[in-house]
Specification:
Order of helices and strands: EHHEEEHEHEEHH
Largest sheet: 7 strands, mixed
Strand content: 15-25%
Number of helices: 6
Distance between the termini: 19 Å
Oligomer: single chain
Bound molecules: coenzyme A
């Protein structure tokens, strides 16, 4: 099944290969990261847009350890979007996904491509049993805040002068599981208390991942294409 999209189609109803609003423009493909030969293209795409410069070691840190959490958007053979993430245990308790970089080429924005890349990353993390996903974004980055909040992320913390340019950041957070289903290995009383406080702070319907954000078609494509 392929959906026709109009400009008003909500992000939650866009399937993974139908982010274009004008079918005559061609089709955007979403592909998993394959290897180092793609790195120069990803770096060019990202360095063009993010306020923080990253060294090649930062890219390798993410891509060598978590290649399966990187997804690319392509228009033909042109790289037009990328998401790079990691997944690690946090404070010896929760399995925490972290979205490190997300960029869409500025001539392709506001067509659901960024949201689709983030959803691919979240699904891959969920498949690896992640408990939660976090990221930081500049306070002034309205586009990113809107994108993530549409997907259920909440503003967890404000980090003062977090970026080199002096701008504050928000730490955004999305819980993939209810507290009772989360990992509790080696959890100290302090960790436990902190988690209780965090969960209480989130209202019943905010901050938790909603499976309904992915339509059936999107999920089926994920399974077939990426095995997630
Ligand atoms: C942030 C970014 C990845 C968004 O990519 P995108 O493909 O345009 O995102 P989407 O089309 O999926 O948009 C998702 C939602 O955010 C909104 N949005 C996206 N860019 C926006 C902007 N500049 N201003 C206001 N809203 C914006 C869209 O309207 C959409 O909401 P809607 O579905 O309710 O209409 C892209 O703007 C970008 O690469 N920016 C530079 C790098 C960056 O800031 N990365 C994020 C770092 S945390």
């Amino acid at each position: 099944m392929r959906m026709q999209l109009g400009p008003d189609t909500p992000a939650s109803q866009r399937s993974w290969d139908t982010a274009r609003t004008d079918p005559a423009e061609g089709e955007i493909r979403y592909v998993p990261y394959k290897g180092e030969e793609q790195l120069p293209y990803l770096m060019a795409l990202i360095d063009n847009d993010l306020s923080e410069p990253y060294s090649i070691y930062t890219y390798r840190f993410f891509l060598h350890s978590w290649p399966d959490l990187c997804f690319l958007a392509m228009d033909g053979d042109k790289y037009i979007g990328v998401v790079i993430s990691k997944l690690e245990r946090h404070r010896s308790t929760t399995l925490r996904g972290y979205i490190g970089m997300l960029v869409v080429d500025n001539t392709y924005r506001k067509r659901g491509i960024g949201s689709t890349l983030v959803k691919l990353s979240i699904e891959a993390m969920k498949n690896k049993d992640a408990d939660e996903v976090v990221l930081e974004t500049e306070l002034t980055n309205g586009g990113a805040l809107r994108l993530y909040e549409n997907l259920g992320f909440i503003r967890d913390k404000r980090l003062s002068r977090y970026y080199l340019n002096g701008v504050d950041a928000f730490r955004l957070k999305l819980w993939l599981k209810r507290q009772e289903d989360m990992h509790t290995c080696e959890e100290t009383a302090e960790d436990d208390q902190a988690h209780h406080a965090e969960h209480e702070a989130a209202s019943a319907n905010q901050g938790y991942y909603d499976d309904a954000l992915l339509d059936d078609d999107f999920e089926q494509q994920l399974r077939e294409r990426f095995g997630v």
